[in-house]
Amino acid sequence: MIWLIIAVVVGLVFAPAMWLRPSPRQQRTMRLRDASVQAGIQVRLDPSPLHQDAERLPAYRWAYPPQRPGPDFMLVRDAEASTALKPFVAGWRWRKEPLRPLPETVRRHFEALLATLPGDAVAVESGHDALVLWWDESMEVEAFMPLADDMAELREGLAGRPDRPEAHVGPRAPRA
Predict the structure, then answer these.
(1) Separation of alpha carbons 106 and 27, rounded Å
(2) Which residues contact 14 (CB under 8 A, 6 or more apart)?
(3) Alpha helices, DSSP H only, in 46-175?
(4) pLDDT band at residue 163, thresholds of 50, 70 and 90?
């Protein structure tokens, strides 16, 4: 009888510790975020880019070099977008289209990349500072890293193509 009481007490002591242990999904997400940060990707939980959504979503950010800013655009998955938005490729619509057309090679790469994104990717955004993937982190590290490399390649193709070039700073060159 005393052994039964000891077992119950030990169980009561260790039960809260088991509840604090990360779930398998949390462990996978931690591994994914750690590997992403080591690869130079900024990972943040930001307010969702979707309308009428107060939730915070993971935003994986590939920063543009400061001297080569990127264009401004946002693509949203069809399931999250209004049919009034202009289609880009099957399954994706422009919420905000870049002012200048993308070069053909960059456009083809972008279209191929969109076809490989996981189903929980809801938006791809670009701004002056970074190319951003909004998603729910459904992939394992091994499956995500090739996608991360493709996103980095797209960032390189988009870098230096800002919609609004900065005003010239510093002394102007004399006119000839």
Answers:
(1) 35
(2) none
(3) 104-116, 141-158
(4) confident
Residues 6+ apart with CB under 8 A from 11: none
For helices 141-158 and 104-116, angle between their N-to-C axes, nearest 10 degrees: 160
**From residue 33, how far is each of 40, 44, 83, 139 by CA, in Å?**
11, 9, 33, 11
| Global pTM value | 0.80
CA 134: distance to chain centroid?
A: 4
- Residue boundaries of the structural domains of the chain: 48-164
Q: pLDDT tens for residues 112-133? A: 999 999 999 999 999 999 999 9
Residue with tokens 């990707």: 41
Quote the DSSP letter at residue 68.
Answer: S
Query: What strands, in cross-sheet order, belong to the sheet with 73-77?
Result: 42-47, 56-63, 130-134, 123-126, 73-77, 92-96, 86-89
